[in-house]
Amino acid sequence: MANNLQDTTTLSNGVKMPWFGLGVFQVEEGAELENAVKTAIAHGYRSVDTAAIYGNEEGVGNGIRQGLEAAGISREDLFVTSKVWNADLGYESTIAAYELSLKKLGLEYLDLYLIHWPVKGKYKEAWRALETLYKEGRVKAIGVSNFLEHQLKDLLEDAEIKPMVNQMEYHPRLTQKDLQAFCKAQGIQYEAWSPLMQGQLLDNPELQEIAAKYGKSIAQIILRWDLQNGVVTIPKSTKEHRIVENASVFDFELSAEDMKRIDGLDQHLRVGPDPDNFDF
Q: Distance between CA atoms of 122 and 88, rounded to whole angstroms?
């Protein structure tokens, strides 16, 4: 279990991935983004998650360089994730997309590279490309995002290497316990995107009550719930006080009863697209 911001989970291939990181979805290129990355590193974050489609890999790279220098740590101390976009799914095109992401980020390698969405008929070729990058030692770990159980099973039929991570929309309104259990059985680390349901849970009365009991914010309660469920989490923020607050979740523990109460908020409700039904 994670006891501090630098604690890691060990992926199926032995690579260590921080339980907690910074997400940068919908944060545009520019000073605000660079500053958020730099600030997170200064406050002890050791994981940053981006994607080609976010259009902000250059800014993330700049923030990483500034942050590493200011903190006096090396590139190896940081875990960086990016994702290949749907339009680039294919063997050669996925490898080219990886090169481009590295170039934009200004990095020699990525710690984790994910297939962003399970585009039917395309993700197997893309997975073959990820396996090649992995076998060549050009990426430390490979995985998927937004893959449901049947899509994972389909991928596993032909895969030589199992995905090490599955990054899913995950919050108290969308717990997908069966999918999480399947991933666990397969040795695939579960990771949450949109853990705070894009702010939609921040005035939930039940969560308010639990938060008051622990003297914490609702965001902190949810992020702690993620961790206690064995889920890696990457909340997004650009504000320093929020970056610090989000990570202040290692000094308390939710009781089994409160964990159950939060689980009970599940309504199978998504804020993002449905992995079974998207057209982009």
A: 9
